[in-house]
Amino acid sequence: MRISSLFSGGLISNYNCSAACRHCLYRSSPRRDASYIDPEFARSLLHRARSLGCRGMHIGGGEPFLRFRDLLDTVGVFRDAGMRLDYLETNASWFTDKASAIEKLSRLAAAGCDTVMVSICPFHIEFIPLYKPEGVIEACKSAGMNFFIWQEQYYRELSSLDHGRTHTREELEAAFGPDYLLRAAGRFGLTMNGRALESFKPFFRHSSAEEICAANPGACTEAGETSHFHMDLYGNYIPPGCVGFTIDHEDLGSELDPERYPLFLMMLSEGISALYEQARRDSGFIPDPEGYISKCDLCQEIRTWMSKMTFSGELGPAEFYSPAH
Ligand code: SF4
Ligand code: SF4
């Protein structure tokens, strides 16, 4: 099996973040490693993606603005590599005042960034007060930077709250009704993986591992999707919504080595039943009697178990499998 063509993706500059949102696919947080992508390394990732047909990527994190000088350099590499920078994601936590925000945005524009995606949603507002994304939006207007809000539907709703401070889950539920965050997750079209699984699992119907396997026979086709992939600062290729494997970007375009990627290839060819059987047989995996909400839930738990039991170079980053993050 080979990943032979890529369409549109994202470059993960860092996993460190000023927030630790409940829905975060990558389990980013202030506790994650502060490493940032090396611009020269970013260039090689962009070249690899381009060689497989990708013409546009965005920059995301973590929070990319946490190391602004490195961010500027990374933006500059896109132009050199002939890769369109579709947009730059931010949670706006870096905003302090309009003048300094305009200055940063102007420098980013000069480096080749023309669009910023500003995150506003019920999960971000637990960490970022609304005045910060609003400040970035106003600065974008002044600096001539294009922007869009992710997601606009929540901005209208959350605008009724105090813009000067963060809001807890309890406050959000008091304002918008019980289970507000759960309903928000449904409206978001959330990918239930990473931290989102832990956050929302209690609210969904659970099935036994055997029932999950029976309901999901055959290959996991999602793991082979390439439409909204990511590449991270460590050089890992990440299929859309499928986190926790470390597929080296240098192996893209070639036949994937079964000795290097046994679990990923097993998922692609045989699916969750085969992974479950192997985990029970070889690693002593014992399924949770409470059950699972999806095949990704079971898959992630098996991989977390395996990451503790054996060294597997195809599972990572290590911090992804640590509950402390
Ligand atoms: S969703 Fe974005 S802002 Fe929130 S923790 Fe993840 S990377 Fe950080
Ligand atoms: S079941 Fe596993 S391999 Fe398939 S998409 Fe979910 S997390 Fe990825």
Number of helices: 12
The biggest sheet, with number of strands, parallel, antiparallel or mixed sense and barrel status, is:
8 strands, mixed
What's the end-to-end separation, in Å? 32 Å
Q: Mean pLDDT, nearest integer?
A: 95
Strand adjacency order, main sheet: 5-4-3-2-1-6-7-8
CATH-assigned fold name of one domain: TIM Barrel
Low-confidence stretches: none
CATH uppermost class of one domain: Alpha Beta
Strand content: 5-15%
The tally of strands reads 8
Keywords: Iron, Iron-sulfur, Metal-binding, S-adenosyl-L-methionine
Cofactor: [4Fe-4S] cluster
GO molecular function: catalytic activity; iron-sulfur cluster binding; metal ion binding
Protein name: Radical SAM core domain-containing protein
Which secondary structure elements does this structure contain, and how are they paired or packed?
Elements: E1 8-12, H1 39-51, E2 56-60, H2 68-81, E3 84-90, H3 98-111, E4 115-119, H4 131-143, E5 146-150, H5 152-158, H6 169-176, H7 180-188, H8 195-200, H9 209-215, E6 228-232, E7 236-238, E8 247-248, H10 262-269, H11 272-283, H12 295-309
Parallel strand pairs: 1-2, 1-6, 2-3, 3-4, 4-5
Antiparallel strand pairs: 6-7, 7-8
One iron/sulfur cluster binds next to helix 12.
